[in-house]
Design brief:
250 residues; alpha/beta; Rossmann fold; seven-stranded parallel sheet; 7 strands; 51% helix; 13% strand
């Protein structure tokens, strides 16, 4: 069994790599940071293939697929992604467009290409790392929340198509809340809420994916948050979210 994990040089992706190696999977790890990626592979040990790939660039995404399409991948984990904190009127447009390239376009392309392969052989798993942000709008993290909405809704639609086709291919969306990673540093914001342990989130996500669960929410607190926000009027929910996000600053 072989798994491809994007964004594997840190955070949830790194933790997933450790856990899946323990489960006995052969790994192909990708990230844009060559040094950190090499360090992760060395620390995990064993035979691990690493591919330096910057998913901000469409041609890099296609090159990644072309390099591994004959490797008989069993699991694709679309984990790479980042956020950007700040008012939409002030945030850097170029950085936001890069975010859309990584969080949406790369996920879309890789999901499409690998899904076609999986569908043809009638086996395989795809885990798209979305976020609890995928269930709502996020003032101060507008573009990030929007990208995770896309990721989640794309996954849901594909799931129903596969179900109706009686396919043995499984697709899932991992939707954690704040996780203790370097997300805050990259996004230039600080979460006042303590993040979940990234190793726990990674293990929980992989275990539930292998059981065929569609929406994977790692913590009870976040499950309750997502459940109850359905009953809050939209404008009130936006005010609440704004106040929570407004507590983040560097």
């Amino acid at each position: 069994m072989k798994a491809l994990i994007t964004g594997a040089s840190s955070g949830i992706g790194e933790s997933m790599a450790y856990y899946m190696k323990d489960l006995g999977y052969d790994l192909i790890l990708t990230a844009s940071d060559e040094n950190r990626l090499a360090k992760v592979a060395k620390n995990i040990g064993g035979k691990i293939e690493t591919i330096v790939c910057d998913l901000r660039y469409e041609e890099e995404v296609y090159k990644l697929y072309d390099k591994v399409k004959d490797e008989n991948i069993d699991i694709l984990v679309n984990n790479a992604g980042f956020g950007l904190f700040g008012d939409f009127v002030k945030t850097d447009l170029d950085r936001e467009l890069e975010m859309i390239e990584v969080n949406i376009k790369a996920v879309h392309i890789l999901t499409k290409l690998f899904l076609r392969d999986f569908y043809e052989r009638d086996s395989g798993f795809i885990l798209n790392v979305a976020s609890s942000a995928g269930f709502m709008a996020g003032p101060h993290l507008d573009t990030y929340y929007a990208t995770k909405n896309y990721c989640l809704k794309l996954t849901l639609g594909i799931y129903e198509e596969l179900r109706r086709a009686k396919s043995n291919v499984h697709i899932s969306a991992l939707c954690p809340g704040p996780v203790d990673t370097n997300f805050n540093r990259v996004a230039k914001g600080i979460f006042k809420i303590k993040g979940a342990n990234k190793d726990y989130v990674a293990k929980y996500g992989i275990d539930k994916m292998l059981k065929g669960k569609l929406i994977i929410i790692p913590t009870f607190k976040m499950k309750m948050t997502i459940f109850f926000q359905k009953f809050i009027p939209t404008k009130l929910l936006l005010r609440i979210t704004y106040k929570i996000q407004n507590r983040k600053s560097l």
